[in-house]
Specification:
Length: 409
Amino acid sequence: MKSELDRLMAERNLEGLLVLGNSGGNPVMNYLTGGAHLENALVLKRQGGPLTLVHGSMERDTAAATGLALVDRDQTYNQARFLQKHDGDPVAAAVDYLGQVIRDNRLFGRLGIYGMVDAGSALTLLTRLQDEIEGVELVGEYGTSLFTLARETKDNWEIGELREAGRLTCVVMGEVQEFIQGHRTRDEVVLKADGSPLTIGDVKGFMRMRCMAHGLTEQNDTIFSQGRDAGVPHNRGEETMPLRLGQSIIYDFFPLVASGYYHDMTRTWSLGYATDEVQQAWDECKEIFDQSMAAIQLGVPYRDLQLMTCDYFESKGHPTPRSHPGTHSGYVHSLGHGIGLDIHEEPRLSASAGNTTVAAAGHVFSVEPGLYYPERGFGVRIEDSVAFTEAGELINLTDYPYDLVIPMK
């Protein structure tokens, strides 16, 4: 949580932090500003001091809504003045600007650098800044950073955003189901009014239209895969493929709301009827899904949930990552992952070496057992997203039926 930033900075011996870049595709910037839309912004903080946003004048109303301490960049650090001073050299002007911000805000000592900037630009800019500024050591973190840990636990405001993302995601999924069911079928194929097949691309197009209507964004291509393709967990589905009766469809849907927070849910559908093989796989996934949901409690090690899932699937004769590392068939992944401003973040519900994380207040994560048999022409996955509130109450953010068979005309 953001309330832990000072503690985490002290643990990493960071006297300050600086977050750079536009807000788009910049989870750390979005985390600190509540998803405000900003261009070329800076967020800075001294250990023990407030979060401060350096923003452009045209975005002053957006900046004011963040609740952060504010500095108007165009009034205090006019970019034209820096360019004029350095005869139009953009790198020298940017280095001078950042140096002034660092000195004015007394960001001395070890200064953590975060945010999203082009890699080459960042290397050029930060290398030169380090050479030219005194009393500051620019520090980069790789892997588990200060913000990785801060974002692992969500406060109740964030959980409210995640809850709304879940509500709207379920609304759109329901509209997609009704859209499909509104079509007639012939010879095991779903047809449009003109008699041509309804395709996966048609379904995704309708879904995207409904996302826009409800204020959701499809940041990544939604998974809507059928038959053999459903047997490869992240196969997005072939858009020209007609929808057919009796084939498993994995619909993994993970849009985000305006503040940048995702939802993640999966339902497996079989239109009209399900084969015995798919029904059995779905029944087994639902059984371990229910067992996993019942086992989630504060203090439970996440690796234990993954091991329980492997125990179950292995008892049913399926390969797992434990019994058959690298398997492409059976149960092939971990039980779940954290959700927030990234679709995959901490915590991880895996049994990988070094995962000692236990369920804690503020954790938000998916629970998604699945079985995959591409060589047999099907895949099955069931996924809800759940959250522990700041008070430790477990809530399910996904409210949608689990039905496998979707009746058709």
